[in-house]
């Protein structure tokens, strides 16, 4: 039963969800460095460190990507008034995918180092990121439909954030398709996703709002 302002009598504040999510993000980026193993031949240490270039590359890419997901997770949940069980479940699935990323990163680094199985490794890596992007879109759609967002965001901001999330599916999907044939080009497309999605979204702070209702 809803009150006059359409707020459930039991309103779960998103604070615990965000805190738990931040913990998972922190653990995921920490686990990334475990893939980088010191060289065994200390007699040629400099050469051995240089041979780890694929691990360094995969580490930097994944660290920044997880950081980007964390930033946009805050963009989303900073505007959430309260959460329901559906949001809790969907966010759990999102965190499950993020926790899988260190494995995808290790797979990509190993394939680069071995110069074998690189197409499959890029597809697995990209699919992990694409799945996270898909869950972002599903969560955002539910937040809008269930009217769980802060009304001060306004319809302009809702649409702008939604477009940014939707574009991620096309961008990463393109990287996967290209990577299935030209792996390095696929990685480059996915890496190009980074600077664009660290930029602020026009309207995310409620500016440029129109005098219309939130989509229901």
What's a quick, concise take on this entry?
With 216 residues, the chain is mainly α.
Name a few traits of the molecule.
single chain, 216 residues, mainly alpha, 7 helices, elongated, disordered C terminus
Structure in words:
There is one protein chain. The protein contains seven helices and no strands. The protein is mostly helical. α1 (15-32) runs parallel beside α4 (85-114), α4 packs antiparallel against α5 (118-145) and α5 runs antiparallel to α6 (154-179). Residues 210-216 have low confidence and may be disordered.
Topology:
Layout: H1 15-32, H2 45-50, H3 53-77, H4 85-114, H5 118-145, H6 154-179, H7 183-198
Order of helices and strands: HHHHHHH
Structural class: mainly alpha
Based on CA atoms alone, the radius of gyration comes out at 20 Å
Backbone shape? elongated
Terminal residue distance: 18 Å
What is the overall number of helices?
7
**Contiguous runs where pLDDT drops below 50 for at least 5 residues:** 210-216
Mean pLDDT: 88
* Main sheet specs: none
**How many beta-strand runs?**
0
**Helix fraction by DSSP (H/I, runs of at least 4):** 55-70%
Beta-strand residue fraction:
under 5%
